[in-house]
Design goal:
three-stranded mixed β-sheet, alpha/beta, Rossmann fold
Length: about 325
Amino acid sequence: MIKTTTDYLKDSRVLVIGGAGFIGSFVVEELLKENVKEVIIYDNFTRGKIDNIKKYLDDKRCYVFPYGGDIRDIDILDRAFEGIDFVFHLAAMWLLHCMDFPRTAFEVNIYGTFNVLEMCVKHKVKKLIFSSSASVYGDAVEIPMTETHPFNNKNFYGATKISGEAMLTAFHHRYGLNAIGLRYMNIYGPRQDEKGAYSGVIPTVLKRIDHNESIVINGDGSQAYDFVYVKDAAYANICALKSDVNFGFYNVATGVQTSIRQLVDTILDLTGAKIDVIYKPYDVGDERQFVKNRIGCPLRAEKDLGFKYRYTLRDGLKEYIEWRKK
């Protein structure tokens, strides 16, 4: 449950690794609503952007760590951890990137995470919040997927997150590190990467609408997911930090099942776009890589962490679309 004291974060120094990224920048925003002393952003700006955090840097409590920000650079990371009370670890290579560059995925997501855990122990960090992923589950055996769902992952990204969770567990039991891993379902919203080759389904659909291009759906569109608005994902991080729980893994989910067909229909309705929708078979090999059914159970996170989603898919999409217009 959420700690009742308002002084839990008072005068604390918080390190947000990957704090200029999609979810990380919203974690920074949530932290600045708290009674913290400093929020230090550690980011190599490979995926993160200075525009994501520009307005937060106007707050004198918030700044970018000045000596670099790659979790593979252990000596620089060591310096960043000096005097830190709490850590959020959101830095990672994402799913499709890991598929194309598995060795780099290992170096960033596994070796880099080990470095973060090692520094947490060395500098006696009070609590770590680790961004895991529902990718650890793979395709659903049961719906909704609880935290006891078996690991059926078949891709490199999920493999790195399983490794991260295993290391988190080992560090907790060996060194007493307080740590919570959050298994995000499908996160979407403002600041999501829309320009790269690895954009998610929602930005891809919106870009096609921008250019009046047909929307292409792999398979028959029956694939179903649990879409979580990015502000809710950030809020889940704060709930995890402020909770009485010192170790565990939790879904960040709504429990609401939405097919890709339903998603596209909702976006078309909200935008008023009149665009053709084309269905095509998966590319060779892709069908084995991509999960087609994943809806998370939100009950454990609500009970233990006090986290409950606040945005429906329609409300989140509406806010996201309005943000893009601006």
